[in-house]
Design a protein that fits this description.
Length: about 600
Amino acid sequence: MPRLAIGPEFPRELSALAQPVRRDAVVALRRFLLNVSGAPHPERVRGARDPRVATLRLAEGHRGVVVRQRDVYWLRTLLPDPEAWAFARRHRYGVNPAIGVVEEWDDEALARVEPALRRSARSGRLFAPICDGDLLGLGLDGHALPLFRLITTEADVAALEPLLPPTQYVPLAVLARGGTLSEAWRELNAWRAVDRDEGPIDTEDLYAALLRSPDRAVFVSDKVTLDRVLEAPAWCTFLYPPQHRLARAAGYEHPVLVVGGAGTGKTMVALHRAAHLAARGSGPVLLVTFSQSLVEELSAKLDVLIEDEVVRKRVEVDNAERLAVRIVAAAEGHRPALVGRGARSLAQLTDDALRLLSITTGDLLDDVDPGRKPYRHMVVDEAQDVSPAQWRLLRAAVPRARDDLFIVGDPHQRVTDTKVALGAVGIPAAQHALDRSHRLPQELLSFTVRLRGGGPSPGLVTGVTDLSAFSATRHGERPVVRAYDTPEAELAGLRGTIDAWLADGVPAREIAVGARNQRLVRDAKRALRGLDVRASTFQHMKGLEFERVALIGVAEGVVPEPPPDEPYARARALQRERSILFVACTRARSMLYISHSGRGSPFLPL
């Protein structure tokens, strides 16, 4: 029986095929997995740069490209016949000798650029001061070392990025910008999917390398797991190594804080950590998020992520406000009033909930019997907007024990006036960082960082965080900023833009329109009458993502709203307004459209 691993591109390419072709491909793949009569057989690729590469005829006119080693098959991609043969001839594969992950090389393209590098190398070689041993110690490929020796500028390294495995590009990029060998090693080491040392790396063992590469391959052992991988959203199956390492760690002795910019996968890490704790932890799990709309969103994602109904029931999803309401209601026998006579503010309600919880489960330090706490594990999303009182309540709801609190957030996306260091509320968290955006293209990321202001922001641990190391994994469209003479012309422009996006084939559910206030949202809905496109305030876009996003009314006097006069309050209000606009802009995966009538917002980059 073959040991079959599926690559992340394959399910996407399969889903894009016409239904009859898709059905034939799935049937053929099932036969191959089960090794039964009529299964496709590997066909050699003439002129292949890697002799282990073969193709499988999976449907009329379509082939899968596989990398094979004995009974191990890594199914890389699914393409029409001519493209599949070309892909198979062009690439070679290897195992990084330093961290053991699988690597894919565009060998054909690298051969084409070598003469240009050789000509420019006469003016001086960038890595000449570094010996071969040091470069090889960073996991750089021995066969590619002569090519790397030809590099003369940092721009050469940047030009090679699309052709290299990321685990080859990353250390080169650090060294090219003047970084040390230690810094280059730290950047490479971040691509490990597991923290523990697995012993010597066997660069000839493809199976072990695929197991270490959760973003590149997942093994399927039967029809059920195969169908699951082919049908589930990619985020359910394929995690980037830093995400995998954080979400699937065997255990944490102390609270953990994961910080990361927009699109780095913080929420995906939180979901997978909650699922991991539900399956392997020692009690009920609470996943906390910012708002009721996000509660519903994350609950739906967990329904997809966790197949086992018993395991799924171990995870509750809620926000801090509703947790306080539930605790007080359980103690007082009725739902507390938040408006009208006898009403309590949310802050008062949270304090009451903490007092009641301390009475029923013991004080904050009394964790002799963890079972007295309402939850054994807690995962907190959008942590930057949790208030100090809410943190004290959350801390009291889980015991101080292994795997108690797993927290994710981004201080730069703070949309409330809350600023708190976790240590000040009894949560001495160890911080980890995600700094690569997989959602935003570099052009959109650069625009939003300038809009937000890349300077430091008060963090969730003592000190500040900044956006200096934040980067994207791909390139795309530049944001479009349009100025109109009148609000009516701006709304007509919005309608034309959305009509064009829908005509491009973008599903309505993948389009969002945002505005700073409800009046502008109502105007947008009137302009888009008849179109099933989401329109909401900037704040209500928090935590969501869409293929394309249009923001209207980003004008002076609207964004920001007029701030108070007192200098300190004014500075805080303006920073909050920047954060709100930043959050709305970073909801887009591929295209961002911003419009205003009259003078544009002073926040918009020039």
